[in-house]
Amino acid sequence: MLSLYAGKISASAHPDAAEFIYAANQAAENVSGYRVELKNGNLNKLPGSPYRSGRYPVSISMSPDSRFVYAANQGSASVSAYRVDPANGSLQSVAGSPFNVGAYPDAVTVAPNGRFAYVTSEDGNVVTPYIIDPTSGALTKAGEATATGAHPISVAVSPNSRFAFVSNYNDDSVSAYRIDRQSGVLTVAGPAVKADMHPIYMKVSNDNRFIYVANYGTSTVSVYRIDAASGRLTEISGSPFVAGSQPYSVTVDPTNRFVYVANWGSHNVSAFRRDGQSGALTEIQGSPYATGWFPYAVVVDPQDDYVYVADNGAGTITAFQLDPSSGALSKIPGSPFQAEPGPYALTVGALASH
Fold this sequence. Notes:
CATH topology: Methylamine Dehydrogenase, Chain H
Largest sheet: 5 strands, antiparallel
Number of strands: 35
CATH architecture: 7 Propeller
Oligomer: single chain
């Protein structure tokens, strides 16, 4: 199996490699799966898709070895867990799923070490750690929930699995935590840092040095440097950077050179070149790029060839070809692809047959 965090994957070096995208569909109350055609970026629905979830799934996360997929069901206080069929990418429910995680879970994120998952509760103002059974994929609560700010939305984990970060929508802040490597339990790393209005989804750069935060209320992206020892955050010079209207989701490409932001209010994606030393963003010529109505999520495939956007309002997934030299995007022929109603979140991973 190939890790999403391992950088660019060569299809020629791995002739049996396959990429899969999974979408949490809030309105349809299910999870859909697609196989990526590596030669052109087209999406093909997987066998059995869509798959049953709980009510109002709003977050989805895949384990780094691409064996398991987890969806947070905001309306049914649970997380649905699935095993990925290595033969074709289809999903099968894990025994015991869905797992009760308390009221109004807003996000589920699997740590890149694959051992733990973290779930935010927007009404409880907490983030809770869970242990992932390496054989079955089942979830077991790892310890007591840790306090966040008001109305936590997303949780991002650094690629080295040392730190976790939570966006506090009503506090306009980001909380930082140290992760206990043995238990997965969180310890506060210092005072929460101020963000722009209504920070929502976030992404840590692949070098573990910076975190990028989409600020829904002010149409900006805040950038913070992560202290390698403590996990504390310091806003970089020039931050926040202007994005489109009401940015919802942000991601960093596998090569760590580009940042993409899904702008809910302006129905497009902003593309930025990322300075590797300072973390600063410079918008790419031609940005922003039109998507379907109300884009909620943006991801880059592991080969760094394609960018996919969940168009919540349109019920589609818009696909772009990524220019490896400039980071510019061009819409793939046939895009957008029809999805289930209300795609809200995306996760992408790669498998290789042995």
